[in-house]
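User: Before I run my own analysis I want an independent prediction to cross-check against. Here's the chain; please return only the structure tokens and, at the end, one sentence I can use as a sanity check.
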Amino acid sequence: MKKSLIILLVVSLFSCKESKANSSQKEEIKEQSLFVIKNVNIIPMTIDNTIIENATVVIDNKKIIAINGSVPAGAKTINGKGKWLIPGLTDMHVHTDTNTNFRDSKPTRGANVFFDTQGVMSLYIANGITTIFDLGARVEHFGQRNEIASGKVIGPRMALAPQIDGGNQSWGRRANTPNDGRQAVRSAKAEGYNFIKAYNFLNVETFKAIVDEANKQGLKVVGHIPEPFRGKLEEVFVPHFDMVAHSEEYAKFSKNKTTEDAQYFAKLAKKNKTWLTSSLTTMIWIGSQLRSLDEISNSEYNKYIHPIILDRWLNPTTNSYYNRTSPEFIAHIDTFIDFHKKLIKAFNDAGVPIVAGTDSGVSGVIPGFSLHDELELMVDASMTTEETLAAATRLPAEWLGIDKEVGTVEVGKYADLVLLDKNPLEDIKNTRTIHGVFVNGTWVTKEKIKIMLSELAQYNEENKDKFKWENRWKY
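Assistant: Structure tokens:
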């Protein structure tokens, strides 16, 4: 008991210390709300995407108020000479760490492992990600979103989808009848969700009822293709099944992983107006962990992962991929990786909208940094750099229904922007050359990003021996 209290006290003390530091930084930022970026090259990511060279962009009260217009007095000047301005990036498939109770539920029991929200969100901001879509959202995520909205935390916009599954799954919402599925959707709507995630073990009729009820309630549906649709994949494409959560869903329904299969799946999705989230990097990381944990262990970004999560990833007995590896499983995943390239090409060629998503939170998939890996994989799968940037900016905003607010660089939209040192249209790797980020009108410089990441790494290093996955029930 004493050990548990000490650990929680340390977490609380650090949270107070870190929040004070972050508070002082935010106060400094809040003093200035009027900015001008001079001589910058704008990649607006509008449909025609005409580049505006040597432009002047004025930002006031969180919004872009002028492009090549007059500059009000008192504006803080940002030198954009030789730099490139793009809309803030979006990761359309994340699983965000938040306060969790790993113990048995009791009437007044709260979480026993706590995550500093600023630390969690810093990884996204540091990588130019100003919107995320959490596909396993819980009530705690509303709390994170509120911290961001209140200004206590500098973080991305958060879209949230709760998971509904069937069978005997142990977390999230369970529905094994059409009536239960409809009620689960209605409950989610009443709780404030705008999206629904359908999962693996929903039976056919319950899945269809969920999609139908979601449409009636004005909620979009994203999800897996449930296992009961094996042998009858065509039936999953019902009206208002709005997006498949990752390429893996199609791969598991293809026997031979052929180009013809990929083209057939694209045809079905196109006809039903069902979009695709890419999620390519996840399978790469799964394949790596089936062979060895060395790549995760040697990652330069490990220092940004909370110790209890990293301990789970690096422990051979708790890493859920490494501990069930076999030559057959490795070969199986390798076929998925190869087929995903065919899928992306087929869907893109067919005109099915593709959005960028990483499934970050899966072991090895580092939040924030992994999106740049994803973009490179999308280009490697035959998408152009412009198409790939659209998949991480304009198209996610359109699907989420926030395209009037963000997703392009235009007058009247919120200043969710990334200032890059190099042109990403020439090389998609240049999305990593971040000079600074505007998130909802707040300017976060490269120097401030370094400080945010340094504080996070310091906390994780100081606490690496205090949090072990095997002791998660005891804290």
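Sanity check: Residues 2-30 form the longest helix (29 residues).
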